[in-house]
Amino acid sequence: MTSFIEQVNQLIESRRSTKPRNFNGKKIDDSIVWQILENGNWAPTHGLTQPWRFKIFTDAGLEKLANFQALLYQKLTPEANFSPDKYERMQTNILKSSHVIVICMERQKSEKILELEEIEAVACSVQNMALTATAYGICSFWGSGGVTYTSELKEFLGIGEKDRCLGYLYLGYSDNPATSSRRTPIQEKVTWIAENTDTNDLT
Ligand SMILES: Cc1cc2nc3c(=O)[nH]c(=O)nc-3n(C[C@H](O)[C@H](O)[C@H](O)COP(=O)(O)O)c2cc1C
To answer: Is the dihedral of CA 17, 26, 34, 53 positive or negative?
Structure first.
């Protein structure tokens, strides 16, 4: 039996982004998606604002989102730059998913907490969800391309002017899940301060 820390290490290391084009169309039970969302709800949040808001598209809702964003892409793209492949991908990525969680941040009315921190809290929530999906053997992919940051998408989602859409978390099963990724060593990104030899004086 592996220890809790070994399980956590394994879970974190094995979470991968699997592109929705590699999903197999198999449906995730809604009850599992609710558990994924429940774990998202336990993210840390400054001032307990809990700014994450999720719009779940599944079943015929996937067609609604797919059609909307493909047509929006067409509308917003100058003819010379229009890519029929991309237009198709904007639909198929969604249609191959079981559920698409559209990731939103609801801006606090008082705006006391920094917007940056509200976005950070939503990102923590998304990571909770991606890890939970991994534990269930479900693939996930956070995509933020295409029409993610447009005002038209905000209107479609019915979110406020100061709220934000931060992308889609595509969920699905795959016969060919991504298994490899790479990171440069953590040691290159860490400065370890364990001594106080400075005589810095701010006054
Ligand atoms: C905020 C955010 C937005 C992302 N948007 C995209 C995207 O639009 N397109 C894409 O290919 N990957 C996107 N990704 C996923 C990254 O490509 C992926 O995490 C990275 O390649 C590392 O792979 P891994 O998650 O399997 O370790 C996004 C990830 C994050 C955190």
So the answer is: positive
Tokens for 82, please give them.
Answer: 């229009």
Q: For the full predicted model, state whether its pTM sits above 0.90.
A: yes
Angle at 45 between CA 186 and CA 171, to 5 degrees: 70
Is the CB of residue 148 below 6 angstroms from any atom belonging to ligand 1? no
pLDDT tens for 141-174 read 999 989 999 999 999 999 999 999 999 999 999 9
What is the C-alpha to C-alpha distance for residues 19 and 83, in angstroms, rounded to an integer? 19
CA distance 7 to 29: 24
Q: Indicate if ligand 1 lies below 6 Å from the C-beta of 157.
A: no
Q: DSSP assignment, residue 68?
A: H
**Domains (range + CATH), the chain:** 14-189 (3.40.109.10)
